[in-house]
Amino acid sequence: MINKSAVIIAGGNNKRINMVKPLIDLGGKQIIIRINEVLKQMFSEIILVVRKNQSDDIPDLGIALGMHIVEDIYPDIGPISGIYTGLNESINNNVFVIGGDYPFLSRDFIKKMLNSSNQNTSVFVKNKNVINPLHAIYVKSFWESLLYKNIKKGNLSTRKVINENHNNNNTRLLNYEKFNSNFKNSLFDIDTLDDLKKARKVISSKKQAKYRLDYY
Fold first, then answer.
1. Considering only Cβ atoms within 10 Å of each terminal Cβ, which end of the chain, N or C, has fewer?
2. Angle ∠(197,201,206) on CA atoms, nearest 5
3. How many Å apart are CA 52 and CA 73, to the nearest integer?
4. 3 state DSSP class of 49
């Protein structure tokens, strides 16, 4: 375990799928539990960002899992506020940020990202021309103040803020197209019912593979 922080963004309204995504059960485990199982072995601090007065079971489950629970400082403006809130609360300068709907986090891939980082280097994944803001390592001392300034100006697209400013900071971009399947699975998130179906197929295939190995 290292002295770096992880932030889970779990206060979204889930409008596209009409389900509380971090609480979706996959293979007998809720997604947020799957995320925690990976992160708790790697980070000294896990921060869970939720909405104010969030009425589902996420805050209580986060407490039960030993996470540090914080409420979104600027609610209802999208992930930029959740990321800012997590950075603001973090006690460490290097912060891994993940959405609450990533069921297949790869410990090896996160280690690769951490190894690509240091106290002054942020790490993002770029797929073609798109930078992913929710499976990334942020340097708090740079991004916290920058996100705050953009929130105050009404610039609420996290991707746009990163695109416009990553060259002003020590930033490494990892090329998605060069990843193996395990690393790509780590970046799989659930936005739609089709995504959920794909995730269940992955779980099913893993169980079948395990059964075959156990059988033989």
1. C
2. 150
3. 9
4. strand
